[in-house]
Amino acid sequence: MLLNGRTNNLIYGSHAPDAPDVFIDDQQWKQRWLDEPRYYIVADRQERSRFEHLVGGEHLNTVAESGGKMLLTNHPLH
Fold this sequence. Notes:
The protein has helices at 11-14, 26-33, 48-55, and strands spanning 2-3, 23-24, 40-44, 61-66, 69-73. It has 78 residues and is α+β, with helices and mostly antiparallel strands. Strand 4 (61-66) and strand 5 (69-73) form a beta hairpin.
């Protein structure tokens, strides 16, 4: 899935009738993130405050960080 991914050259084919339903917005991401299944997101580290605003810091579990990127999951790993 691509969070807010309808940008640049991806927008052209994203609305085609046979395009896969992989583009989600903040609200759709929030609904999934706060749900029971485990999800992961890879994003720039600077996006963390935006994610905290959407779902709260207690729902952001850092798996790894490197090169200005972070891997988060919605449930603790232990």
